[in-house]
Amino acid sequence: MIQKLDDAKPTLTSLPWKEVLELVESEQLTAIPTETLEFAVEENNYQFLVESALKSLETSDPEKANLEYAAKLADKMKEIASRVLAERIQTNQ
Fold first, then answer.
1. Is 11 within a domain?
2. Alpha-carbon torsion, ordered 28, 34, 36, 38, to 10 deg
3. 57: domain range?
4. Chain segment 27-54, per-residue pLDDT in tens
5. Would residue 16 be called left, alpha or beta, if left means φ above 0 and alpha means ψ between -120 and 50 degrees?
6. pTM (2 d.p.)
7. What is the per-residue pLDDT for 4?
8. What is the C-alpha to C-alpha distance for residues 34 and 9, in angstroms, rounded to an integer?
């Protein structure tokens, strides 16, 4: 969920990993909000992505709930987000 704090830039309070992964697997990437993609590619948010992935894994896939696997998920999210954002920019030109 993205939350605006007054006039500050939006912050992601939680990353909907289950929904994002379902959309990626079904190749319905256009359904992922641009704000989520922009948040994912922002280097300053990487640690948050890893922590968020780890927290999600603890619930959804406990045997894979470790920092290494969470970092792989975060890296994949960044890669996909970068690609989708680039496609959106190219489409809007």
1. no
2. 130
3. 31-93
4. 666 777 888 889 999 999 999 999 988 9
5. beta
6. 0.68
7. 37
8. 14
